Amino acid sequence: ATQSCRSLGSACFGGDADPAKTVVGDDGAAAVVAAVAAAATDGDFRWRAHCVWNQCVRSTRMQDACGAAPAALLPGVSRRGAAAAASGLRAVAFAARDHEANRRAAADAGALEAAAAAARADDEGVVAAALACYACVVEGSAARADLALAAGAPAAAVAAVAGPAATADAVRWAAKALAATARAAAARRGDVAAACGGAAAVAAAFSAPAAMKARRRGRVDADITRCLACLEPPRAYDYAVGVEAVAAGREPPKNFRTLRRDLGALPWVLGGPGDVVVAQDLPGPAFYERLAAAGVDLEEMPVFVAEAPRGAVPRPWGVPGPHLRRSNVARYRDDVSV
Fold it and tell me: How far apart are CA 323 and CA 338, in angstroms?
């Protein structure tokens, strides 16, 4: 069975492997997952997990068929040798990558706790695989960000970047993981930074020799830049038309309230990956699908929230208060002539 999985994994490797994956089909993918759970040795586990990993890369259909993979793989990761553990964590990562149902299944199976523990290993392959697992599972959920914080995953990621087992791959996945955690926990971004020892400590870790070497790659440098921006106090964009009326103690006119409701998501064009947009109606999946189809890089977008997080810097209108232009506020008051 192991040699069969090894051959099948090789057949499913690469960008032109769709015909092979079609032949494997849903039943074949499920059989490989079952074989992983029955693996007796580290070698069996490694190559069967490697097959799951290659099947799931760039294939939503295979990810659907491998929904049971996290539950089958994660119990064996902690008791396997380095090569086998790395394959298991990578398989979980790519089963969950951009696949919400598998992310939830992985989190329920303890993926974030396993990743946090494995990120502290002294083996380069295990560390990079653990950080990939952490990044792919935590994305898009405040509840999973809370699990990552509780498991100490952000601190483990920062320590891994500055540690002896850091590689360019590990640095890249650490940056992605920290940025994903900060985006998912937008209302608690300060907690994410504090869990890492502060934004300055994260910046120092990404200035370590391994990270500086990795930054020579343009994609890694972009990931690190995005990560550091996500850990700074966010700018909160709010399409707050009528804020002067609020400052004057009155309700904004009806047409302003309508504008704010209908165009609340519009400031996303001004924000970056470290920012938030305060919107009364939070966009749904269809909104992101249309933007992705139009070529928008979703990782470069701000996060939409119903309420600005503590410590956010208001943009572009700000908040009601005495700093607003008095002539604009006064025209909403009955006791002042403008």
Answer: 18
**DSSP code string of 148-172:** HHHHTHHHHHHHHHHSTT--HHHHH
Q: Give dist(CA 231, CA 215) in Å, integer.
A: 18
In our burial notation (b when 16+ CB lie closer than 10 A, e otherwise), range 135-151 reads: bbbbbebeebbbbbbeb
pTM here is: 0.78
Rg (CA), the chain: 23
Residue 25 and residue 126: Cα distance in Å, rounded?
30
Is 277 in contact with 234 (CB distance < 8 Å)?
A: no
Return d(Cα 204, Cα 270) in angstroms, integer: 28
What is the tally of helices (H) and strands (E) in the chain? 20, 4
pLDDT digits (tens, 9 = 90+) for 262-285: 888 888 988 888 788 988 888 888
Per residue in 32-53, pLDDT (tens digit) is 999 888 888 999 999 999 999 9
